[in-house]
Amino acid sequence: MLNLTIRGHDLSGVKTVQELAGQTKKQGVHNLQLALGMSFPDMPSGAGNLNPGMGAAFKRELARADVQVSILSCYINMIHPDPEIRERLLQKFEGYLRHARHFGAAMVASETGCVLPEIQYTEDNFTDAAFADLVGVIRRLVKAGEEAGMLVGIEPGLNHPLYSLERVEQLLAAVESDHLGIIFDPTNLITSEDHQHQVALVERAFDSFGDKIVAVHLKDFKVEAGQIIPVNLGEGLIDYAAIAAIIAKHKPLSYVVLEETKDGHIGEALKLLGASEARPSFHL
């Protein structure tokens, strides 16, 4: 049994929070991962723009459609090489942590970034120095999360210093806090050469640090010219039934985000997951 979630910016043509609420309800979903700047690019949503009233307005309008913000996105390059830019980005994330509760969110989410100004694949991310830098930054953000009473949700990926299950374990050992959680996206950690082992990867993750997994991204994919390309759920190679069963076993009612599944394809994804989902022995 899963708490299925969609990203607000996977719904096309949404210009107001009322439209976001209505379109989410129309899809039969109750949970949103909300990236303010992506869903509402014309609305200021920087470090100094968030405020309790904004959060309350979003929460109120979404609640009328029986929808809530489960995850507030603040994806930044938290190890940006320019110190001034990095400081602005970290202050933005800290602002999101302070105000997330007004939106009703359970956590603020980000990937870890890149040693280069633009996030991209580089082996320079894989050095011990880059990882040590990252640990220091996450310690700072987690301290802010503790002060705000908010989870910091960190998403690993191959384009980042947090590029493997082993690095995740090292991070969790270095930053011990109940306010640090992992948003696990298995598609972010596979390549065209090893994607056949995706289910084993998920099993290993839950065995290694399942207690720290606070949400899962379920992102289908295909392989083209040696690259992993996201597609709507059910159109690619992800073994969604096996992965959903693992999540339901270890983390019943966990937030599972249908990342990159868009518009009318969301309903089809819900049908696929509903048909494959193992039913729990408990009742709500």
From TrEMBL:
SUPFAM superfamilies: Xylose isomerase-like. Keywords: Isomerase. Residues 56-261 form the Xylose isomerase-like TIM barrel domain. InterPro entries: IolE/XylAMocC-like, Xyl_isomerase-like_sf, Xyl_isomerase-like_TIM-brl. GO terms for molecular function: isomerase activity. This is Sugar phosphate isomerase/epimerase. The lineage of its organism: Bacteria, Bacillati, Bacillota, Bacilli, Lactobacillales.
